[in-house]
Amino acid sequence: MNTLNLRKWLAPLSVAAVFAVPQQAEAAAFVQCPGDTDGDAMWTGGEVQPPNTRCMHISGGDGYAVMPDGKQLYTFGFTDLTGIKPGTGTIDARIDAGILAATQPAPTIELKEGERFYLTLTNVGMVQRPDLFDPHSVHFHGFPNAAAIFDGVPDASVAINMGSSFTYFYNIVEPGTFIYHCHVEATEHMEMGMLGQLYVRPAQDGTSLEYPVGSGNTHTQFVYNDGDGATGYDKAYALQLGSFDHVFHEEHAAVQPLPFATLTSTYTFFNGRGYPDTVNPAALPSAADNPRSVSNGGTIATGQPTSALVTLDRATEGATLLLRLSNLSVADLFSVTALGLSMRVVGQGARILRGGGEVGGKDLSYGTSVVTLGGGETHDVLIDTSGVPAGTYFLYTTNLNYLSNGAEDYGGMMTEIVIN
After folding, report:
1. pTM summary value
2. Rounded-to-integer distance, Cα 167 and Cα 79, Å
3. Three-state DSSP class for residue 228
4. Radius of gyration of the chain from Cα atoms?
5. 3-class SS at 351?
6. Could you say which of 52, 62, 225, 321 has the lowest number of CB atoms within 10 Å?
7. How many Å apart are CA 70 and CA 286, to the nearest integer?
């Protein structure tokens, strides 16, 4: 058995030893969600949910992702543990569920303005890198935190050590499309995949507004509190643009010095997938290289659960699409176009494009055929499909060198918009 295989064989034993702690102590450490007494970050079995309160429990650890050409890459990432109770075993069931189960992208977080959000992060460690004891954090990118301790930047906040948990609190006061990521050793952890989509629906949701007045075009869902319905839509999709440098990931798995200076996007994707995997509506199979996937017969959560296929049935769902676009690549900016469809950008950086950002301000939204996003940027894009022929349209990057899966052409950052 070579050194690398021996390390992989021993790694799960190392983590199990770390977490072999009394069940009661683990459960008590995780009860941070108001009203939740059984540690699953939910309100079941008679538990009372406080008004306007949301809870979520995620883990930070490692895992694998499969590229469309079959290459399997070692990754870091977050996993949704919400709904999992501690159980009665020696190892907490929530920790067990998070080990070697990192997802790409991170679990999507959807909130509504006015809610109080409690997010617990548990650092389950990097099983395939037992030589590392990296802390993790959650940085709610672009959000005005009331207290620096919840910001996730280690310089002014806290970082969660392996085997520990911390609950972030957010008073959700602004709508918009945000992102979240680990801010510890940010370039490394973000390149490895600790990146996710986060958006906040406005308080205006649920009201009925006609825009333009007299058009008969009404909506009850909006991107922002526009006051007049200008940001109304019928169906929304969150699409995370991203990229991996496969060399960086392979060197990480091989415990070699990391090539920060030569980071290059060799695989690009929407929601952690390259075309044609982007249009597969199902979760992708687990990577064969993942030791848990092999030992458990592939029963653990897949590393890529989120499809990037966009569909709209105008007969029942309306005619206006909202695309919440975010670029979480640490190496490149990307331009995307929807061939044959007109786009209107109504928000950028979690702010409505309106003078002063206020109701009645000058409309600064604009029509375009191409949207360009730098790293860490978000755009809210409306596509009005009224009068557009039914069919399949392509959403893809105009950076043509990124329409590939590694060395194979006809892939990469591309997906389909299917209009019925």
Report:
1. 0.90
2. 15
3. coil
4. 22
5. strand
6. 52
7. 12
